[in-house]
Amino acid sequence: xxxxxxxxxxxxxxxxxxxxxxxxxxxxxxxxxxxxxxxxxxxxxxxxxxxxxxxxxxxxxxxxxxxxxxxxxxxxxxxx
Length: 80
Ligand code: FES
Prior knowledge:
By secondary structure, the protein is mainly β. The chain has strands at 10-14, 17-21, 47-51, 55-59.
């Protein structure tokens, strides 16, 4: 299942460190970048963030967020 095939967010408890979140949706290791964008001309590169302390994040799984890679609640706006 590709990253943006999900209907809601992926909730992650991250430990301190650098994370590379997928922005193109092609990763096989969602929500992290696995390098699948290389050679695909997606025009996207991973979102890199450094956490200085443990933190829970909501990563967009639907691809509709305007705040990628984070969920902004847009997944609920299009459901019937
Ligand atoms: S999962 Fe995409 S906006 Fe929430």
